[in-house]
Amino acid sequence: MNIFSRRGAIHCALMLGLLLLLGQAAEGTAPRFTLKKPTSEAPPHLVAYEYPPLVTGEANRPGAAVELVNQALAAVGKSIPLEVVSSRSYAAQRLKDDPSVVAMLGETRLLSATEQKALAEEKCLRLTGQYFYYRPTRGEALARIGNFKALKGRTYGALPGEPTEAYAKAGIAVAVDEPKMLLRRLQGGEIDFVSGFEPHETWLIDRLFPAEKDQFAKLPFQAWESTYSLWFNLGHKSAGEWRLAFSEGLKKLRQNGAYGEILQRYGLGDWALKP
Length: 275
Description:
Elements: H1 3-29, E1 45-49, H2 64-74, E2 82-85, H3 88-97, E3 101-107, H4 113-117, E4 119-134, H5 135-142, E5 155-158, H6 165-169, E6 173-176, H7 179-188, E7 193-197, H8 198-208, E8 216-233, H9 239-256, H10 258-265
Parallel strand pairs: 1-2, 1-3, 5-6, 5-7
Antiparallel strand pairs: 3-8, 4-7, 4-8
Helix pairs in contact: 2-9
């Protein structure tokens, strides 16, 4: 083999190796899943994201909101599958893009005004938010904070999609991240305070920081008030039927006392819908 043919062979080998490396890199950065859009004939179902103690994903103790939905529909002789996914963003995507998803269980304040225009809300229970901070990094300074205006100059940890205009207006910086990461950043001193529905935030802290859960404290004033609702996609051909069924069923649960019993069983009696 002459020098030119040797060079050609080496060049081909190098190019082949480069193509293999590029293929592996592309595979590593590809999405973990591809959502295959089902046909319009797919059986209707609901979707929810994990939000203990409202949605747990557990079969024997599925969460207060899941039980409310299932029992409300059962009260009018209906049932529908409810799929639990790990993230709010994926649940919202399914509600928007999957024609088999009739409705989503979720927190009202995390849906934008644009999203809400295409949806119809049926409330399940109230939510109230509390501000949390981490004593070892910010305790001395934040323990004396008595009102929202006094948080000026601090950094707040917000959830994706959470409205933050009030913080900007008050001179409070905002860092956006997922719930678990916000708590880790709070512990690490990157941010000063976060907010959350108290039973859910306490549940997260207990599991992420069992040895330090007592180091997380609450500011003495309420952060926000919202609702946890079943959001129906108005573009779904059977949304009206299922919305009416849920509304009528929930009325029956409130009348016969089952609504309050479900919330009390999960320690959520203080967050029942007001008459």
